[in-house]
Design brief:
Family: Belongs to the class-I pyridoxal-phosphate-dependent aminotransferase family.
Helix content: 25-40%
Cofactor: pyridoxal 5'-phosphate
Shape: globular
Protein name: Aminotransferase class I/II-fold pyridoxal phosphate-dependent enzyme
Keywords: Aminotransferase, Pyridoxal phosphate, Transferase
GO molecular function: kynurenine-oxoglutarate transaminase activity; pyridoxal phosphate binding
Radius of gyration: 20 Å
Number of helices: 14
Strand order of the largest sheet: 2-8-7-6-5-3-4
Largest sheet: 7 strands, mixed
Distance between the termini: 45 Å
CATH architecture of the largest domain: 3-Layer(aba) Sandwich
Strand content: 5-15%
CATH class of the largest domain: Alpha Beta
Order of helices and strands: HEHHEHEHEHEHEHEHEHHHEEHEEEH
CATH topology of the largest domain: Aspartate Aminotransferase, domain 2
Length: 376
């Protein structure tokens, strides 16, 4: 059988997690928390499971959740959105991205992707009949705007950005957003897909969102994730915010892809976000980032800036000359700690001897991992 995705195999996340299980290693690879969720969410879930909310939700989402999202966006970004026409609840952010690209990309269209990139982007573009055009970031994970401007052309349908950035933990600054706005002005038919699933996990730097600029928000699909925000990755609930003229096309795909999202989860989230301050999340994860860095102070790893997300990238040049995939495999087998190599997020497999740890773990897990890593 001829495959539609010849370059796609088992994801690095699955591979490293399987190796972690096989070798009984501490798993700092896949990006999921290993600590309990907020007890209030548990209580609300138990309560709602006994209510009459077990049948299909409306296709775009429960009205009470759509209204809750609109109010949250207004509190955080001072942006007014129409909950009935500009929000779509999705089965995780990845499904939202897939539906977006299926709806907006036509055969032969180009989609610009900044590497290292989350690994769902390129396959979704291929399946839509489009052409992914990869632009590598600089070695410090900043964007080469000159190269981007030279790359975007009349065939470019969508530009995908990810801010805060996974896997690097880097955040775009005001100069980046000024450059982004200019690109959108220069190409009036270009649509921005702004993947902001870690929008509330930011530290010292201010998070610049597509919500904050009129030109961007009027031509953007903004991707968000309850799973990342509230440590409930297994619930697979995200949402898209976009102007009505864009979102109505995405809804056409969404209705035949999943139709609607888990109704009990939606009702629980609606109840929860009404009284939750999402702006406190950054402090929670900043403490974990700082704790992990402190525990690793005597290690030979070079820590790179972690400005957002719950990931810490490090370089191991003073430790080994192994390629990053081989180095991660060695760490699992010999040191009992699993990490993610960054070369797999590049189209050209650029290898800067950089790996990624997830610090969304209990203190006990971080202490045990650091003890092993400091012995390298």
């Amino acid at each position: 059988m001829q495959t539609k995705l010849p370059k796609v195999g088992t994801t690095i996340f699955t591979t490293m997690s399987q190796m972690a299980n096989q070798y009984q290693a501490i798993n700092l690879s896949q990006g999921f928390p290993n600590f309990p969720i907020d007890p209030l969410i548990e209580d609300l879930l138990a309560k709602n499971s006994k209510e009459n909310v077990h049948q299909y939700a409306p296709m775009a989402g429960l009205p009470v959740l759509l209204e809750g999202i609109a109010q949250m966006v207004h509190r955080v970004y001072q942006r007014d959105i129409n909950p009935s026409t500009e929000i779509l609840v999705t089965s995780g952010a990845t499904q939202g991205i897939f539906a977006t690209l299926q709806a907006l990309v036509h055969r032969g269209d180009e989609v610009v992707i900044l590497d290292p990139a989350y690994d769902c982007y390129s396959p979704a573009v291929h399946l839509a009949g489009g052409k992914p055009v990869h632009i590598p970031m600089r070695e410090d994970f900043t964007i080469d705007w000159r190269e981007l401007r030279q790359t975007v052309n009349q065939k470019t349908r969508v530009l995908i950005i990810n801010n805060p950035h996974n896997p690097s933990g880097k955040m775009m600054d005001k100069e980046d957003f000024d450059a982004l706005v200019q690109v959108m002005i220069d190409h009036p038919n270009l649509i921005l897909c702004s993947d902001e699933v870690y929008e509330f996990i930011t530290f010292e730097k201010k998070h610049f969102s597509a919500h904050n600029h009129e030109i961007l928000r009027n031509r953007s699909v903004i991707v968000s994730s309850f799973g990342k925000t509230f440590h409930i990755t297994g619930w697979k609930v995200g949402y898209l915010i976009a102007p009505e003229y864009i979102l109505k096309e995405i809804k056409k795909v969404h209705q035949y892809l999943v139709f609607s999202v888990n109704s009990v989860a939606q009702k629980t989230l609606a109840d929860y976000i009404s009284g939750t301050d999402v702006t406190t999340l950054g402090k929670f994860y900043q403490d974990k980032r700082d704790r992990f860095k402190e525990l690793m102070a005597k290690s030979k790893f070079e820590f790179l800036p972690s400005e957002g997300t719950y990931f810490q990238t490090v370089r191991y040049n003073t430790i080994s000359n192994l390629p990053d995939v081989a180095f991660c495999e060695w760490m699992v087998k010999e040191m009992g700690v699993a990490a993610i190599p960054l070369s797999v997020f590049y189209e050209e497999r650029n290898d800067y001897h950089t790996i990624r740890f997830c610090f969304a773990k209990t203190d006990e897990t971080l202490i045990q991992a650091a003890e092993r890593l400091c012995k390298i």
